[in-house]
Amino acid sequence: MAKGVFPMSKLWPWVRNPWFESVIEAQRRSQQFLPPSVYSALVAGSERGRTPSDNQNAFAELEFAPHVAGHKPERDLSTTILGIPVPLPVMISPTGVQAIRPDGEVAVARAAANRGLIMGLSSFASKPVEEVTAVNDNTFFQMYWTGTRDAMLHRMERARAAGVKALITTTDWSYSFGRDWGSPEIPERMTFPAVYKMAPEGIRRPAWTAQWLKAGLPDLTVPNLKMPGQDAPTFFGAYGEWSSTPPPSWDDLAWLRKEWGGPFLVKGVTRVDDARRAVDIGADAISVSNHGGNNLDTTPASIRCLGAVADAVGDQIEVLLDGGIRRGGDVAKALALGARAVMIGRAYLWGLGANGQAGVENVLDLLRMGLDSAVLGLGHASIGELSRDDLYIPDGFERVLGAGERIAS
Predict the structure, then answer these.
(1) Catalytic residue set
(2) pLDDT tens profile 36-64
(3) I need a labelling partner for 125 at 20 to 30 A (CA). Which of 111, 225, 249, 356 fits?
């Protein structure tokens, strides 16, 4: 290196070695790459942020009971999710506006397709459903209960025409009135005035700024909520429509399920009575989830609620776990408590922030390796053999919510 030349790796350490060895390292690199306001929007939950913290920390309270001999030389990590074969019990959970990089959801969908996995696409995504299904045949489309029934029918039919394989309805998101550390200011559109306003942050993150300038500063809109003859709403416009739409009843969700007609997943279940109601309306799967801690703060960690829900309805419906997955061992613990598969959110967003599409693939590979290591150490030949016997579950760990009489619509 020439005298006086500052090594670029000091500014961006991932340039020299793009591979990272943990999801937590991907998060650190994302923090180095992203402007502080963008990073803050990804990491934070509602109010005091107890639930997102518990989502992760609860996994460490569960302890493995490994064997020391008799390990199997080969392990089968494959399963099916709503009839779709996957080599790993992991799918992409839908998250809104993945514009931490210009290619956003398309990059994530490509990464999932390259690993044979399912892409969950939010109706609040920054990329159209047609662009996502073009790169991943196995895409599930997520819908919020927002707008009129006619508008929702239009979105469903558009998703169906694009080749979507299943519908996810998300009802576990409530309006949060604030965060104890403050909410970041995020531009409504990525215009030159917005970029100028963010200049102090952009100067600190030149690689991020350069990507958006190279992409031509595309608008941050919500194209999957676009109605015929109208422009796509901005994220804040879409959020306003959602917050002004009366919340759905179970009868409304039954209507949604009937109109869709295909595989149907209800995301956001933490209570046993809600799980049973999902069975009653004909749902094919549920996700035990608290919306990553962006719903009601101090809701228990998803993994604490999983066992009771799986015990109650796991023989009638597919049960997935969403929340706090950062390692392959976390996946193994969820499966041992009755999940068929897990959905990941922030984990792949950290990969996207750290190294784009390759970073998402990196995260998926880490989860596969970690799960394989856990199955090996527990003495199993397949993930189907995982059970509670593989875990030490401390007293008071699990939460049984709503196990009494079913509540009315």
Answers:
(1) 291
(2) 888 888 887 888 889 999 999 999 999 99
(3) 249
